[in-house]
Amino acid sequence: MKLGIILQSNKSEHIWNTFRFGITSLKANHEVTIFLMNDGAELETIADTDDFDISKKVAEYKERKGSLYACGTCLEFRGKKETAVCPISTMADLLKMVEESDKVLVF
């Protein structure tokens, strides 16, 4: 199954659970794409905490070949022109993800 996940939160627990679910899905041989938008575009600025090892989850997700994209407009609203975490994308890329996914989830 192809899963499309839209992460629109910058809350540590939401981010952590999004990537945990993505990793679990990849381990079950599903294809997963996570699209960062709204506050989710702040992913690379969210620090790990004692409870939520976000950087490790993101690294594991990428190691397992999960796809990750960030909304360019959302980044621009936050004063960023690029991100080291993933490629910058557009609404057309989000539409393509939705069209190609069997299921779309929003966190």
Give the secondary structure arrangement, pairings included.
Blueprint (H helix, E strand, L loop, with lengths): L1 E6 L4 H16 L3 E6 L17 H10 L3 E5 H6 L10 E2 L1 H10 L2 E4 L1
Parallel strand pairs: 1-2, 1-5, 2-3, 3-4
Helix pairs in contact: 1-2
Run of helices and strands: EHEHEHEHE
Helix content: 25-40%
Main beta-sheet strand count, sense and barrel state = 5 strands, parallel
Query: Number of folding domains?
Result: 1
Helix and strand content put the structural class at alpha/beta
As for the CATH topology, it is Hypothetical Protein Ychn, Chain: A
Order of adjacent strands in the largest pleated sheet: 4-3-2-1-5
Provide the β-strand percentage band. 15-25%
Overview of the molecule:
This protein has 107 residues and is α/β, with parallel strands linked by helices. The protein has a single domain (2-106), classed as 3-Layer(aba) Sandwich (Hypothetical Protein Ychn, Chain: A), CATH 3.40.1260.10. Helix content is 39%, strand content 21%. It has four helices and five strands, in the order E-H-E-H-E-H-E-H-E. It has helices spanning 12-27, 54-63, 72-77, 91-100, and strands at residues 2-7, 31-36, 67-71, 88-89, 103-106. Strands 4-3-2-1-5 form a five-stranded parallel sheet, with helices on both faces. Helix 1 links the parallel strand 1 (2-7) and strand 2 (31-36). Helix 1 packs parallel to helix 2 (54-63). It starts with a strand and ends with a strand. The mean pLDDT is 96.
